[in-house]
Design goal:
The structure is a homodimer. By secondary structure, the first copy, chain A, is of the alpha+beta class. The first copy, chain A, folds into two domains: about 1-110, Creatinase/prolidase N-terminal domain (Creatine Amidinohydrolase, Chain A, domain 1, 3-Layer(aba) Sandwich); about 110-335, Creatine Amidinohydrolase. The first copy, chain A, is built from nine helices and 20 strands. Chain A has helices at about 5-15, 40-45, 55-65, 80-90, 105-110, 115-135, 145-155, 220-240, 245-260, and strands at about 1-5, 20-25, 30-35, 50, 70-75, 95-100, 160-165, 170, 190-195, 200, 205, 210-215, 270, 280-285, 295-300, 300-305, 310, 315-320, 325, 335. In chain A, the strands form seven sheets. Chain A has a four-stranded mixed beta sheet with strand order 1-2-3-4, with helices on both faces. In chain A, a hairpin with a 6-residue loop joins strand 13 and strand 14. In chain A, helix 3 packs parallel to helix 4, helix 6 (about 115-135) crosses helix 7 (about 145-155) and helix 8 (about 220-240) runs antiparallel to helix 9 (about 245-260). The longest helix of chain A has 22 residues, at about 115-135.
Chain lengths: ~325, ~325
């Protein structure tokens, strides 16, 4: 199996470089990487053959197979580009058959073992603590990017390797954009604030969102927040090993429909979380696969009213055999600061 | 032409979301994106048709072409995965021919116009200022990740949207890893320090490296640094429109060979820089393409002695018609703090 995704080769072999290719076979594991990473690879891995890559990656892989017998080499069609496949096929010659194998490593990654869950628990706790402190920064006049800067500084200062994604700090009507990027906008009194942050700690990602009002919330905003909070509770409640992902999504959507707010819920309910911030399983309509022990997912319903504002509440949930565990911490009620 | 790379669709259409697909045709431009991004897309773009994507991206694109006549649609084989191509081909049906077109948008992106160069100048100046201040943080006892945290905090505080890549802060023998990730290691007196940082400002990347010693440098380290500094000067000197990229790489390598240090120069001399931190042209062996006005590249030779330490000096260079411009600022001499 040819592995071309840096996250997957870290998972399998511990190598943290971001250029190269890993081949896993019955006869051993081989890592191809270039001069920037060979010394690092030797230090980070063990029981792996490291082949310094001189020319292109395709020619390094081709050289390796040249002169050997007939073999079949798996590759992930979701990771390998059309150009990469053509280049490798050309170099390896006709005796090597490249076979598409969908998401094999991803499937292994989706089922976290207890040590991985332990790391994710720590990452989630760190994100929760940073969220708690970030709420204290919310004073009228502060700018979105100032809050984002402080959040990401704290991630580093507290031992994380950085943000798992671009931190979202959205004030007022900008909170209606689910993926708002921080701008120079200053916070005004009584505005909605959406904070969505995740930290990478020991390679594992966390992801948490809270929505607050600095000042007082209108009756309308309180009702929206109540609806989202209930939708999130219903979705978390429905989460269990053996449950289809689409059922968890439906649980959130049903509550919002009861408030006639479902049409403002413009994204899916959640996603898998691990070494990457977006993994399988996806908690969305049409996802018939079932949750299984070792999955870690986000539950993050929201409502977004264009021109007015948005509300999202997000926590990370680990699925164990017969029970679930919410990894993130912190009050979900509408906080009026 | 089907565009699936977020950086390229920002370049062409101004949309900053990271999920969707753009189709550019003689008859107009169409953006497919999901519910998280549709409101944002309407605000960020103009004269573009936005089609909210319900199911998969492939089925949205397929629906669009269904019932139309015979058409040819270009795609970039370096951006589209094998799985994406199969899914789109299946949905669009036999009347649509998908044609591989290599790096078409990338070629446009490689030739920056004066406004883009202006933005890159600002990003480079910002990175240079942050580098200058970061050097003041280097006191015995400070940890690598503390310095990285402060650097990335300053990026945000000064208006950047964040680091263009994971900031490299490497002390002592860790400086021998060209892509070292910051750890908890504390700085000791007389150790080498490599700082490699880049900030994204108004979407454009910068990239600068300096190597210093906190205390006094050994004669050996001074000689290495002199060699790298001269290699960088020679490479910058050789940079000009019409020159082959491999010649710039050779200019740096030749100087290091004169010091018998070329075998410690384990990577290429530089890379294109722009909306992405690694773009074409690559300044490496075997790169026969010529530099042209509008290219912005890094020049970053180094020597890395395993178990001892490494040295790298990096600046960003814009190629104009008949002249070149170094965008980054700051002394390149070995600073002994």
């Amino acid at each position: 199996m040819l592995i071309t995704d840096p996250v997957s080769w870290y998972y399998l072999a511990g190598f943290t470089g971001d250029a190269g290719a890993l081949i896993v076979s019955r006869r051993g594991t081989i890592l191809f990487t270039d001069g920037r990473f060979t010394a690092q690879a030797r230090q980070e891995t063990s029981a792996i053959r490291i082949i310094p890559q001189k020319g292109s990656l395709a020619s390094a892989v081709g050289q390796f197979f040249k002169g050997g017998g007939r073999v079949r080499v798996g590759f992930d069609p979701g990771q390998v580009t059309v150009a990469q496949l053509r280049a490798v096929q050309k170099e390896v010659g006709p005796r090597v058959r490249l076979v598409p194998v969908n998401g094999l490593v991803q499937q292994l990654r989706n089922r976290k073992d207890p040590e991985e869950i332990g790391r994710m628990r720590k990452a989630a706790m760190l994100a929760s603590g940073i969220m708690k402190d970030a709420l204290k920064l919310l004073k009228p006049g502060v700018r979105e990017f100032e809050v984002a800067a402080e959040i990401e500084y704290q991630m580093r200062q507290r031992g994380g390797s950085g943000p798992a994604f671009e931190t979202i700090v959205a004030f007022g009507e900008r909170s209606a954009y689910p993926h708002a990027r921080p701008t120079g906008k200053r916070l005004r009194k009584n505005e909605l604030v959406v904070l969505d942050l995740g930290v990478i700690l020991a390679h594992y990602c966390s992801d948490i969102t809270r929505t607050v009002v600095v000042g007082g919330a209108s009756a309308r905003v309180r009702r929206w927040h109540k609806a989202v909070q209930e939708a999130q509770e219903a979705a978390i409640e429905s989460t269990n090993a053996g449950v289809r992902c689409e059922e968890v999504d439906a649980a959130a959507r049903r509550v919002l429909a009861g408030y006639r707010l479902d049409r403002y819920f413009v994204h899916s309910t959640g996603h898998g979380l691990g070494l990457a911030v977006h993994e399988d399983p996806r908690i969305a309509k049409g996802q018939t696969q079932t949750l299984e022990p070792g999955n870690v997912i986000t539950i993050e319903p929201g409502v977004y009213v264009p021109g007015v504002g948005g509300i999202r509440i997000e926590d990370d949930v680990a699925i164990h055999a017969g029970r679930t565990e919410v990894l993130t911490r912190g009050a979900r009620e509408l906080i009026e600061i």
